[in-house]
Amino acid sequence: MDPRAEDEATVVRRWPPQMRMAAAVGWSSFLAACLGTMLTFAALDPQLIIDGMDRGEPGAAPWWFTRTGIYSIGFFLFWAVAAVAGLLAAWLQAGPATGGDGP
Question: What is the pTM of this model?
Answer without folding.
Answer: 0.72
